[in-house]
Design a protein that fits this description.
Elements (H helix, E strand, L loop, with lengths): L4 E2 L4 H6 L6 E3 L2 E3 L3 E3 L8 H9 L4 E3 L15 E3 L4 E3 L8 H13 L4 E5 L4 H13 L5 E4 L14 H14 L4 E5 L5 H10 L4 E4 L3 E3 L15 E4 L4 H13 L6 E4 L5 H9 L4 E4 L7 H19 L3 H4 L2 H5 L1
Parallel strand pairs: 1-3, 4-5, 4-15, 5-8, 8-9, 9-10, 10-11, 11-14, 14-15
Antiparallel strand pairs: 2-3, 6-7, 7-13, 12-13
Amino acid sequence: MTATKDARSTPEDADAVQVPAPVEVLGLRLQSPVVVGSGLLTDQERNIRRLIEGGAGAVVTKTIHPDPGPSGNERLLRLPTGMLNNTTYSRRSVDDWCAMLRRFADDGLPVITSVHADSPAALADLAERVTGAGSVALELGISCLNEEGGGLEDTPERVAAYTEAVRRRTPVPFSVKLAIGERVRERIDAATASGADAITLSDTIAGLAVDADTGEVRLGGAFGYSGPGIKPLVLAEIFGLRRDGLTVPVMASGGVKDAVDVAEYLSVGADAVQVYTALHRNMHATLRGIRQGFDDWLASRGGTVADLVGQSVKRS
């Protein structure tokens, strides 16, 4: 069973952002391949709605967890290139999220629900619950680098266990979010063999910042790094996977700051492109610039998103 929703727009929205041919991701017909990724900025209903109104093809919620634990000293650290963060999950209750998700569903909004839990069974329960609340697409955050103890290694076996458990309990399409790195093709194959409809690549990677004067480790340890610094790495990974025959839909994530970055990810074979870190500076204006910039870039070349997807692989 595949749920399909069309993003709704008002005449005012149409005036603000020109609409190209739709893109289909996780059963959603999106008016743009530019998707806002999961994070602190997508933890509020008002933000999610405004991001969609501002041109996002879809928005991924902050990751919902059935037991997120107490709110700690969660911080962001801006670096000359990119950002470190030690954040984990939404502190909103599942009940609060389900009410919000129902409103999104009633309004036909293209929202992808990010979920995680501490065991495959608990994640399956959560996935079933948010599906019942109206979620039409999910993203599984299989692990969190920022969990106490550094998170858990994404082995193919662990990926398969979580993915299979969710697939048994929900009919809606879902993506599994993975980090680039060791055994990534095995982890992707484990996810798709266990029922994943798509892959999101890449989650944050481990990063560290140090105060050279004092020797102090900033944020207290190694945490999730995101931003332009990882874009060449993710580009190379997706390009190599596509060249090696990977056919599963991919949402690229990592370092998008402008329209050209979106085009580059699509060119190496991504089906949609998530943007997040760049939005921490002037969120709405930055998103509008990326979305409209990409639409203008595409129109100037007289092609479609479908023409662009994978062209670098075809030329290699």
